[in-house]
Amino acid sequence: MMKIRLQELESLLPSKKKNKKKQKDDTSIEKNVDVNAVMKEVKHIKDNLSSLEIDWEFDQRKANELYLKKLELAAEEKRKIQEEEIKARKESEQEKPKDSCDVLNDDVEDDEGDLFGGLMGEEEEPTYGTEDANQLNAATSWTIIELSVPQSWKGQYPKDVLADYCKRNSLGKQTYKTTEHGFNTWRSALKIAQDKHPNEPLCFELPEGLATNSRKNAENLIAAYTLFSLDPNTSIYKAIPTVYKDLWLGWLNEKQLKEEGPRIKMDKQRFTFITDLVNNSFIKLNHDDIVSLTYYVMCLDFNLYPSPLTTG
């Protein structure tokens, strides 16, 4: 898919930020990648995308849905390959004889754990994000969202936008609880203090099974989801990277379908009832009665007051 290819190419381009660390990274990128060729292909893909979006048959909503599905499939495939590499590496390490120093160190650590484990109390966990990681790992089919952002991005991330939003709307500190549920499988939960109601914080968790591949991405993902939950119809999402914009539009589409679903179902039931009523009447009534009944039912369907109908 062109958008995925565009995202991969943009990540190869050197950053335009002026700092020493970035300049070193950019130098290594330029040595390994033909920057001119990459920029040429990026321009070609952007031109193609622009021409597609101008086409009157182009459906932005369907394109976003397809893009998200492709991202999920690509991330899942990448995660499986990495897990296989880690597994193979661990198996090769287990075959090597363990050094005696390592064995002694392990024994010392175990003794220290027995001596001080009961004395060193852990800090109490917050009440938000109470899901059991082991239970999730065993029972959940993960959907890993790929959230790579081009190095050239200079705008705000969802965490930054959320912090500004909280300041403007009398909301307090944001506290993230981020957990790893497996290799490259991260989730985050969020608690926001309310200045007007200190004892009633707002708590947010991602939908079940949704995760990403790093701690930073997990926190930005829950920040974007929180912004959507607080104000889904705001245009604030336009200030965040494209990959988060696409997620936002997908969530908005799901929300609209859920809200319109009951109305559509009632309309279908009503239409079916009227159709069955007319069909049954055709069997029982003569021609004049059928004309009168059809007229009456049509008036009911369009909320009109039927007037006497004469036939013949």
Automatic annotation (TrEMBL):
Residues 87-101 have a biased composition (Basic and acidic residues). Residues 1-30, 87-107 are annotated as: Disordered. GO terms for molecular function: helicase activity; hydrolase activity. This is Uncharacterized protein. It comes from Rhizopus microsporus ATCC 52813.
